[in-house]
Amino acid sequence: MSTSIHRYLSLGAGVQSSATLLLAARGDIPTFTAAVFADTAWEPTAVYQHLNRLERIATEAGIPIIRVSAGDIRADALDPAHRFASMPLFTLGPDGERGMARRQCTSEYKIKPIKAEIRRRLGYPHPRRVPAGVVADIAIGISLDEIGRARDADVGYMRNIFPLLDLGWRRSDCVAYLERHGLPGTPKSSCLGCPFHDDTFWAALKADSPAEWADAVAFDAAIRHGSARANADGHPLRGQFFLHRQRVPLDQVVLRPRSAAADVDVPGCGPWTCPHPGDTSTDTTDITVGTAPVREVA
Ligand code: SF4
Fold first, then answer.
1. Residue 298: band (very low, low, confident or very high) from pLDDT cuts 50, 70, 90
2. How far is the CA of 2 from the centre of ligand 1 (A)?
3. What is the pLDDT of residue 42?
């Protein structure tokens, strides 16, 4: 196997990838050439604040954080001139069918820009062919409790590595390490208006960040009758989109947050670690609402 001199971290900025970055910054694992963060431009403020504090630590340790972006996911979804990369929105068909729109956003806004950056840094930007043997190691923050999500890369120029698995660390080890070294309260990394948020997230947003809550409520209303692009193209949605699984407007949802005692971890959306059903999931049933393929969910 060829030895790579390119060693990058896929930085989702959640608990596990933050801990992986801190491990490298403190010299507890080999360092990284850079950490790459894919910015959808619609992360909660708390995530950007956390990213800023990570950046200070990483920069001091000589690890640049590269922010790449394929655009502003919120603005693009509402732009009639922009192709809609489908978000996993909850759908309600004209006859009450319940489903979920296909998820293309993680690939479009997270995986693709990271791959493009890696190719560029290897010296073979798209569409140049990357020669065999030119490979970058990509560290992905998967801990022992998520080992089922550890997979090989799907392209020859990347080799996925899993420093937390090598250490045998669980998520709780990451939290403890972050806290021990001055990084308590690492937020969940996900778009502000991600339909995968649970009621605990929505309730906290509503209570603690009224402007961000209003932003999500406005997006929910704006996307109700399908993407701006589909409507502009004369392909309106036969049904409705919703951000919340109750399939009522977000500001009318009866939120049922978990009690503080219920220690349930709901992971965020890392480029390669999103735990939610994706395009290849088999636990859903395809149905169609208008032009949008959707899947029935339990
Ligand atoms: S956080 Fe949600 S909306 Fe954002 S890219 Fe991931 S799945 Fe899509």
1. very low
2. 34
3. 97
Ligand 1 shell residues, CB under 6 Å:
40, 87-88, 103, 105-106, 109-110, 190-191, 194, 196, 269, 274
CATH, domain 6-296, list 2.60.40, 1.10.10, 3.30.379, 3.40.50:
3.40.50
Average pLDDT of the chain is 89
The string of pLDDT tens digits covering residues 280-289 is 332 233 333 4
Q: In 107-253, which ranges are E strands?
A: 136-140, 158-161, 240-242
Residue whose Cα lies nearest atom 8 of ligand 1: it is 105
Q: At what angle do helices 15-25 and 45-60 cross, to 10 degrees?
A: 20
pLDDT confidence band for 290 (50 / 70 / 90): very low
- From atom 3 of ligand 1, which residue's Cα is the shortest distance away? 194
Contacts of 27 (CB under 8 A, 6+ apart): 61
Every domain of the chain and the residues it spans:
6-296
User: 109, 189, 197, 272: which to mutate for ligand 1, most atoms within 8 A of CB?
Assistant: 109
- According to DSSP, the residues that pair with 296 across neighbouring strands are 285
